[in-house]
Amino acid sequence: MAHARLSPSNTRWPYCPGSVREEAIYPDIPGDAAIDGTGTHLLLEQCILDDVSPESLIGTIIGVNHIDKSSGWLVDAERAARVQECLSYLDRRTGELEALYPGGIVTVETESRSDPGGMFGRTDWQGTCDITITMQSGERVVFIEVVDYKDGRGFVAAEGNTQLLSYLGGKLRPHIASRPDLVRPFYPARVCGVRMTIVQPKTNPTVRYWDIDTTDAVERLEKLAWSAHETDRPDAPLIPGKHCAWCKHKSNCSAQSERDLEKVRTMTTDIMVQDGSSLFEVIESTFGDITTLDDKRLADLADAEAGINAVFERVKAELEKRLESGSKIPGYTLAPGRGSNVWALPEEDVVKALKARKFTKDDIYPPKLISPAQVLKSNKLTADQKKRIERDYISFKAGAVTLKKVAREEQSFEEKVALFKEPEVQLPVQQTTTYDFL
């Protein structure tokens, strides 16, 4: 199913409204990791709908003829164990809510539509929520929790998560919105509480959640709605940041280039060292004798590396682009890199030829001991067997000691924590922009 223009799973548009316009020209092709994650989501959905354990489906193929993978996905022990972690949380959570609201009815939905955009008169802001837990007491829904399952290793925070907030908005809408078309004004007091939860088995802790007041959730949705309307502007700005990581337009983004140039400019001009010279002058002096730099100068110079390298990476990309189009650039050309010998015939023909020349099977296919990583990924072992092998047969060999950048001492604790949090969605200045929406 095609994603909506403002899909909740696209976490860039709340911070960079221009990214929606720029990414629209690129094909929407899922990567291998996303495709594998789809298989785990299908298994989770099937277990909830059919009320079966993932362990009972080990060895079966699910999702045959799926648009992302026609051959389907094998349910192995590892995939089943990850799904079981999510199911265990749902069981525990159901018990907690039943204890909190005696006599209430808990409902668990999977893969259900959420339409937060409809609250604000939009038709392009909607998506599918992995899991929704609702608690109904009498005729009233008093608690709503949205759960997003993540199958990857990249840590995803629950607090301030715009994807979860979007899903929550769509689920709150029938209960807090007014008029037949379920738009403003909103009455958040109708729902006592909400929770936004991430379940990600490949991280620690596996479950992370954020309990907030329903009124707070609605205020955040209002801000997100203004961000959505910012994307409608033909001149919607490009704003670089951490959200650029998976952007399709990243390598061609002018805002990214301008930020890197500014970073280099700041590092090489504005940062003044003790004798009043600029960092650029320090770089110049480095070509003479690096040992003459004091500790602070050396650290400042190292800090400049990322920005400088980013600029030159774009310089090289532009050089290649121009050379490919036929430009003649003094001192540069496109030439083959270091090559290697490869077999010119199919494998079976090469094997046959080598055997005819007295090569044995071991000569042709030199045996090699399987690696610890391959053993731990194998679907021939149970989770307990892997734990025993890891404990009794595998040891950790630390890498060589290398230079690693750490936070400077002058950073406060709050500044360090902020490095791992998405920025707040800022409400655009309404005095300078007029929007026509509900």
Number of extended strands: 7
The biggest sheet, with number of strands, parallel, antiparallel or mixed sense and barrel status, is: 5 strands, mixed
Strand order of the largest sheet: 3-4-5-6-7
Hey, roughly how much beta strand do the residues contain?
A: 5-15%
Shape: globular
Poorly predicted ranges: 415-422, 427-436
By helix and strand content, what is the structural category? alpha+beta
| Span between termini | 28 Å
Element string (H = helix, E = strand): HHEEHEEEHEEHHHHHHHHHH
Output mean pLDDT.
85
Helices, by number, come to 14
Helix fraction? Answer: 25-40%
Rg from alpha-carbon coordinates:
28 Å
Describe the overall structure.
With 438 residues, the protein is of the alpha+beta class. It is built from 14 helices and seven strands. Among the domains are: 220 residues, no CATH class; 72 residues, no CATH class. A five-stranded mixed sheet has the order 3-4-5-6-7. It has a two-stranded antiparallel sheet with strand order 1-2. Helix 6 packs across helix 7 and helix 6 crosses helix 9. The longest helix has 24 residues. The radius of gyration is 28 Å and the shape is globular. The C terminus is likely disordered.
Features:
438 residues, alpha+beta, five-stranded mixed sheet, two-stranded antiparallel ribbon, 7 strands, disordered C terminus
What is the gist of this entry?
It contains 14 helices and 7 strands. With 438 residues, the chain is of the alpha+beta class.
